Backbone:
């Protein structure tokens, strides 16, 4: 269907948003195989900073008793059955 609107040899821009980190290697491989450029907005350092922030927030919630924790997988599964 796209071919109706694109003449052969024309370039298009494809924007994919909110991609999980785990899929980036696949998209990079695809771009490389079709000789296309790929750009990402988050740097590795930004990702690490975000993970550190989330980790601190979880730790604070745990210390305040706002985070439900389980001693075993069995206890977790029982909790999930109730809800």
Residues:
């Amino acid at each position: 269907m796209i071919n109706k609107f694109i003449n052969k040899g024309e370039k298009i821009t494809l924007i994919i948003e909110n991609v999980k980190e785990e899929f980036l290697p696949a998209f990079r491989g695809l771009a490389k195989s079709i000789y296309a450029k790929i750009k990402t907005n988050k740097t590795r350092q930004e990702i690490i900073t975000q993970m550190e922030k989330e980790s601190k927030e979880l730790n604070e919630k745990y210390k305040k008793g706002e985070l439900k924790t389980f001693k075993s997988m069995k206890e977790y599964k029982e909790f999930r059955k109730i809800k």
User: Anything to note?
Assistant: The helical segments are 24-33, 44-64, 73-82. The two ends are 45 Å apart (CA to CA). The chain has a mean pLDDT of 84. Residues 2-82 form one domain.
